[in-house]
Amino acid sequence: MDKNPELGRDLGRDLCVRIATWQRDKMEDGVAAERSLAKALELDPNSDDVLVLLEQVQRAPGRERDLVETLRRRAKLQVDEARREDAYREAKRLADGLGDAKLAESVVRELLEQDDANTWALAELTELSERAGDFAETFRLLSRRAELGAAGAEIRELRHRAAAIAQGKLDRRDDAIGIYEQLFEDDPQDRDAAAALRELYVSASRWENLGRLLERLVDNADSASERSALRIDLAKLNVERFQAIDAAVDFLKTVLEDEPGNGDAVVALSELYEKAQRDEELAELLSGQIEAARSRGDTQAELRFQVRLGEIYDTRLKNRAKAIETYQAVLDRDGSHRGALEALARLHQAGGDLAEAARILDRLIGVSEGADAVRSCGTLADVHEKLGDKVAAAAALERALGVDKADKEVRARLLALYEATESWEKLAAHLVVDAELAEGVDAQIPLLRRAADTHAKKRGDWAEASLVLEKASALRPDDRELLLALCDAYSASGKGKAAAAVLEKIVRATAASVRKSWRRSTADWRTHTSPTGTRRRHWRSSTRRSASSPGTSMCSRRSAWWPFRSTI
Hints:
Layout: H1 9-25, H2 30-43, H3 48-57, H4 64-77, H5 81-98, H6 101-114, H7 119-131, H8 135-147, H9 152-168, H10 173-186, H11 191-203, H12 207-220, H13 224-242, H14 245-258, H15 263-275, H16 279-295, H17 299-316, H18 320-333, H19 338-350, H20 354-366, H21 370-386, H22 390-403, H23 408-420, H24 424-437, H25 441-458, H26 462-475, H27 480-492, H28 496-509, H29 512-529, H30 536-548, H31 554-557, H32 562-565
């Protein structure tokens, strides 16, 4: 063919095709066959037959990129739209398999250059643009696809996607509102569009649009509960944005006509009456709701409305007697209702009926826990103190410590009451617990000393005093003052051997110059305390005198050994 160019284009093409076929089939040389077909295409670039043969040769593994280009050449030559789309579809699939997004996009765009309304190409380019983060292009393509008039359900889906991108990705609020409004006009039951519009109207402060939308949603609502919720939202909108209290009241009344037991509507309407100072209407509303709840057997709602009515009588109408009567009615139905108990306790205190307040507070404590119980115990103690009953006040605070024994304020107050009522045994025990709760030995020792002094000096119980001093001495074993006090307590309680043991411990801690004299004194002491000692008679007579004399001082009761103590 090179030597005879006059053979012509068609003959040259056909010869190249025959050679390629022979090379492919007889020689099984695909490379040579592809060169011959390339020569044929040089002679006739628009020959689909040659391209088909070239496509067949390139369908070998590893030739996907070359095959994409051949399919694109074939697609451009197709007159039939379906065959052209098929070729581009296969080319796109091969590009996806190669992981080449840019190549895949170029294939799709090439088809759109030839057919800008091709729905498959638009859909594929939409996905590619969204995956690449090009949301402006994605929005344009979605809008274009919706305009082309797809099926009704598909159009709604495309518009929803476009509106969501406009709102969430592009911050094009007006575009999103426009699309959602169209969706809602086309289908008033489109809940997604309605919900999106409500959010967008609020963010754009389009309150009138929001009001109209809510009214349309009320008309479209399927159930009474749904209508009620929408009307309550309309009432809030009228109050908060338009200051139209009367309109809001009308909406809420309509809710109660539709759903007489709607608690949210009752609460909202009562708040509006209270805000407008329409107290009589408020009381009438709550009374009606109480009766309605009672007639339908809704105890929970009945009690809730009764508590609210009690608040109105108390705070708004200043009718304490009616408030007490209302709260008492609550307790008649539920004896453990905290809100009613708290209100009654407060009202009885304010009215000076302290005895009844104490009775109510006692019931309140029984249904309270934690900090609430401690607080109620403190209030009960206040009431008892006003009644002049400090013992009962102390008992109330003891209940508080049963809940939280470490409450510092309660402990301090109870300590003062024990002292005022001369409850010395309880005071001493209280101080011992104070010591246990105190941090550090320096804080614990004075409390234990005070407890021991209370046992000894206020109660005359030296045995208990010695037990407390033993605890104190265990905290600071080498404290001479504590040891001496312990000796005093042991001696006064008749525990002579224990006193001697403590004195021996003190001896071991004294300086060497004093130790010899002290041992001589201890020997004399043992003579006194020994049952067979020569001075036994003197010891017994001295201890009998101290025991038989209740007014005898601490020092005189220890006269048997006191001279020896001074040597320390």
